[in-house]
Amino acid sequence: VIGGRIIQNDSRKEEMSGAERYLLFTSVLTVTEATAGDGGEYMCHARNRAGSAEDKIGVHVLENGFIHLECADGNTTDAMLGTRHKIVCSMSAYPEQVELAWFKDGHRVDRSDSNFLIESHGLRLDILNV
Fold first, then answer.
1. Fewer CB in 10 Å around end: N or C, the chain?
2. Dihedral angle, C-alpha 45, 47, 50, 52, nearest 10 °
3. DSSP-derived pairing of the beta strands 51-59 and 66-71
4. Residue 65: predicted pLDDT
5. What are phi and psi of 92, to 5 degrees?
């Protein structure tokens, strides 16, 4: 317990056999109810009689969520009359629960409209007949 919060370090050992015999350890550090002060550089360090090894990871504690959305073709794309055209966007967000919707000229594109197909969790809009 650190600062009244539970800090948990779980370790697991597995024996591996075959041409080489060795032990595989897995260690998980869990910080419950993270605060801004928990952000920083963490290091996992291991040693035995053969030597030592370590790896580091930076942790950013987000006080507020974020969302970033970007369409693959930028702000403008060209479509040939009478063809199928795809518009693809990529998104990153935290928290990950995001409601995605497409709009055309200020009006929401209805999933039941037969001229449109919304796929890939809402990130791709297919215009079936431009």
1. N
2. 30
3. unpaired
4. 85
5. -130, 140
120 conformational bin, left if phi > 0, alpha if psi -120 to 50, beta if neither = left
Question: If 0-12 CB within 10 Å is exposed, 13-18 middle and 19+ buried, where does residue 126 land?
Answer: middle
- The pLDDT score that the predictor gives to residue 75 is 81
Do 103 and 87 contact (CB within 8 A), yes or no?
no
With CA atoms as reference, report the closest residue to 113 among 89, 129, 90. 129
CB atoms within 10 A of CB 125: 20
Residue 110 is which amino acid? D
What is the C-alpha R_g of the chain?
25
* Mean pLDDT split into 10-residue runs, the chain, 130 residues: 56 61 76 86 90 93 86 86 91 85 92 88 86
Tokens of 29: 């550090």
